[in-house]
Please model this.
Amino acid sequence: MTQPERSSSTAGEARVVALVSSGRHPVSGRAGRAREDARAVEMGLTLAGASLHLAHAGDAEERRCRSTWACSTALDGAGGPGELSLLPMAAGDDAVPLLASWLEAYGANLVLTGQRAECGEGSGLLPYLLAERLGWAVATGVAAIEHYAGDRVTVLQALPQGQRRRLEVRLPCLLCVDGVAPMPRQSAFGPSRRGRVEAVSNVTAEPDTLQAAWQWQPARARPSVSRWSSRPTLVTASRPLRPSRRLPGGRCSPISRRTRQRRS
Amino acid sequence: MLQTLLPILIFAALAVGAAGAVRRIRLWRQGRRTPMRWHRLVLMPKRYLNDLHHVVARDKAIAHTHVATAGGFVAAMALALVVHGFGWRNPILGGLLLAASLCMFIGALAVNRRRIDPPAKLSKGPWQRLSKSLLAYSVGMFLVSLPLVGVAPTLLGGGVLALILLALVAWGLAEMLIGMGWGGPMKHAFAGTFHLAFHRRPERFDDQHRDVAHDVHRGSRSTALFPLDLTAKTLGVEKPADFQWEQLLGFDACVQCGRCQNVCPAYAAGQPLNPKKLIQDMVVGMAGGSDARYAGSGYPGIEVGKHHGGPTDAIVPQLVEAQTLWACTTCRACVEECPMMIEHVDAIVDMRRFITLERGETPEKGAAAIDNLIATDNPGGLDNASRLDWAADLDIPRIQQRPEGVDVLLWLGDGAFDMRNQRTLRSLVKILHAAEVDFAVLGDEERDSGDVARRLGDEATFQRLAERNIATLSRYRFQRIVTADPHSFHVLGREYGAFGGDYVVKHHSTFIAELFDAGRLSVKAAEPGETVTYHDPCYLGRYNGEFAAPRQVLAALGVEVAEMERSGYRSRCCGGGGGAALSDVPGKARIPDMRMEDVRETGATTVAVACPQCTAMLEGVVEPRPQVKDLAELVAAALVEPAAAPTARTSSEAPEEVPA
Model:
């Protein structure tokens, strides 16, 4: 990826923060870096270098995040060992107010994160809720940061089928990085030993009251329906069709076209 | 005049040379210090005359030349010191001095003859000059010593002739004594002396083996990589001063003979690696300066003279390009050939460790393999539970169901995920069943041995895998481990010991040979007319000295083995070791293509292999080519099954040719 252009800013130094969560490997289920968050960190390192700051809201006792995240070599270079702020919260707490108050206190004006956590609730709503609470702009599906100026940032947003849309976003803003963003750099064992995890003590988490009211039940196995199935009745019978189903080739599926006709 | 000037010359040269030697020792001692074992100096002469000579003598002409030249010089120098230096002008000593000079002269003539049109592997520059200096010293010393035995007038001096003779002797002394201390070509003798005494792998020498008749292949006596202390401040080698001082000393002992260059598969393939240049670059880094004075072949595709280094400057990329380090297949051919017993592979892995562990700059596919190893315990990122999918119909006992213990634990290795290697494993299982071996597998509890991670420099992942595998193995009872993967064989057998895992590990070729010896396998006669050649895997042969068993197995099958020119301890690597298949450094040719060319030269229709990596690399060569068969496949195909065996299986194992 090309280095994003940086204009000399009048609004002072950028305070770039990457929000990171614990990942879960799709095959083994082992904890590690969350893949989209890793790309967000990579984007932040490309933009801000060693001044990138990482933040993680989670279990204060879980020291694994050190090896998971304080591993980025650029954090280790000139600016001393990389630092990660750990915002302690319990499993039933709400991360949004916690992160919002910390980000305001830290003075962040550009926050990068993945689109959806790999474990836990994983609803993908956190960036929106966070931006809403902070009153910031939010851009999702970010594939690259093209240009950074003191008060705004130009990004490329990933759309289906390789399309890109150029967006100009006013700072402060929250960018959700897409899986098509540049590959994250390799995590290195040496710097990860030296990376510091600073537990933030002046923030208190609030319990997630909404979540507490939810009812949890194991997922039910559903009949798997192939998009290529020759029996449209099964599709319509089992679940409502989404309005636009697109095939990798860009054509509408014959099934959905037929069923849409039938529905109209 | 001669009698006054000669002692002055000799002692001046000695003093200047000694000053240079002190400076040189300081350069070595920039490396990481280890406890000094002074008593090992006593071992030096025997190591030199026995172990070193053993390697040099693979080329008889060079060995004889070196014996004459070096022996002549040492004797002539010692005698000259007594006769000319201290003035004990004894005719007998004088006669001996003449004889020694003559011997050195004959050796020097041979050296000069070789230097008229030197082979490409040799370095030129100062090394070309050395051949002349040897002549100058021997001729000069011979002539100035003639008066001692009364052949020439006692007062030879006084004329122009005396001045010429003095100039010759001075030239010789400058090269031999001053050059030895100040980094001339003769430095090899001085550094080599200490290198042999303080070698980092003393097991390589005969004196460390109580049993004199020790028949283990010398090159395979000490091949395990050294464990890395993961709590150290920086991991691996960033700058020359990060090497252990014995390693720096070893680099300085290089004679630039180019034997390593001749056997290096990466160099032959035009990849940017030349072991000789790499060692010289380490010397440049240790002493500080640029590689412009290097007078040998460089790294293919990289210009000589553009790189520079210093003892506390980073090696990569100012001194050595990262591509050079990643091109190495860790085949150990260079170490095997090196007459000075320099450890190239250790140095390369040390530098890789820094790149991977501190910089996180492993080549892309290598980094992906490491990430997968961390997440899933195998380099492919596959579900470990699918490790036995290929054996669903084979009725393989799991060790978990055998708490009383088994004779053989079959270690599958990561080949279990590879469809080609699954055929080998199925054959091996068939053989084990046929021989009624009491065996079991670990199943999904088996993890990668850590070989690839370790060779790619990720010692942290290797140690984690090693500790977990050792913990798993400690829960089960078995007599020995048998594996079809020489890399697992090497790592389990040789490298787990440092982490508390001591096992009897056998490669399947050794085990099958034992089964044949015990008469537990019966095979039908081989088809006549088919020629087979055998490709020695590096990690089985050079690393572990097993050259005989695979050939025994082929002999038991009754096939005729046509050996390749480079076989046994000189076998050429397939290109798949040391993570080289992952780093995939571009070159002019592919290493497996070159190896297949070796196979074709024998006229063989089948090349027998004994390693999943070799199988994959050699089968990657485009057809038409000799077919690639693992030893286990050859044995399984020839098995005569007992009558009780189900006929269905026999027919499925040997399908008849049916036109499609």
About this structure: The interface with chain B takes residues 25, 27-28, 30, 32, 71, 73, 185-191 of chain A (CB under 8 Å). The first strand of chain A starts at residue 5 and ends at 6. Confidence is low (pLDDT under 50) at residues 8-12, 76-81, 231-264 of chain A. DSSP finds nine helices and 14 strands in chain A.
